[in-house]
Amino acid sequence: MIRAIHEAQVSIRDMRHEDLAHVSDIERRSYDFPWRHGVFRDCLLAGYQCIVLERDGTLTGYAVLSIAAGEAHILNICIEPTYRSMGYGERLMDDILFRARTASVREIFLEVRPTNTNALALYRKKGFHTVAKRPAYYQAEGGREDAAVLVKKLIADS
After folding, report:
1. Which of 48, 62, 88, 123 is catalytic?
2. How is the chain split into domains, by residue range?
3. Taking a C-beta distance cutoff of 8 angstroms, is the pair 101, 154 a contact?
4. What does the buried/exposed string (b/e) look like for 109-141 if buried means 16 or more CB atoms within 10 Å of the residue's CB?
5. What's the rounded Cα separation, in Å, for the pair 61 and 81?
6. pLDDT digits (tens, 9 = 90+) for 80-132
């Protein structure tokens, strides 16, 4: 018996307003303290780099990147829980880094929960390193959680 192997078709494109409900749904299922729908809408309206990853035509992940004054900040990156640990987060990260380099960004920053070991492993693999801690940055059950601030240099200083 011969089995056909299905290779998923993956594409990354700019987020559109009609994507916001699906993006918000993934966000709610992914985090205990999710961004609200209006935050994503405001990011689109502000002109941030908002992108989505589609797998076989279904929105499976998203990212939000702010670029200003030669710096970039990854504000949010998320993959549908069912499709985590399949390389889609890395695909989104590669696209973000490409967009930042294309915009002549010198450094790119992000915050991450120190308890998010999968995300930390991806960021370290992509060359990010910890530069600071933001005390009580994230909402958490029973209080607040610190954030690790990570940076990756994209363009060497002259």
Report:
1. 123
2. 10-153
3. yes
4. bbbbbeeeeebbebbeeeebeeeeeeeebbeee
5. 9
6. 999 999 999 999 999 999 999 999 999 999 999 999 999 999 999 999 999 99
DSSP 56-115: TTEEEEEEEEEEETTEEEEEEEEE-GGGTTSSHHHHHHHHHHHHHHHTT-SEEEEEE-TT
Domain 10-153, what fold? Aminopeptidase (3.40.630)
Q: What is the pTM of this model?
A: 0.91
Which pLDDT tens digit goes with each residue over 12-54? 999 999 999 999 999 999 999 999 999 999 999 999 999 999 9
Rounded to an integer, what distance in angstroms lies between the CA atom of residue 140 and that of residue 18? Answer: 30
Catalytic one of 54, 71, 107, 111: 111
Residue of 66, 77, 142 lying closest to 107 (CA atoms): 66
123 is catalytic: yes
Look at residues 155, 131, 133, 154 and name the one whose alpha carbon lies nearest to residue 144: 133
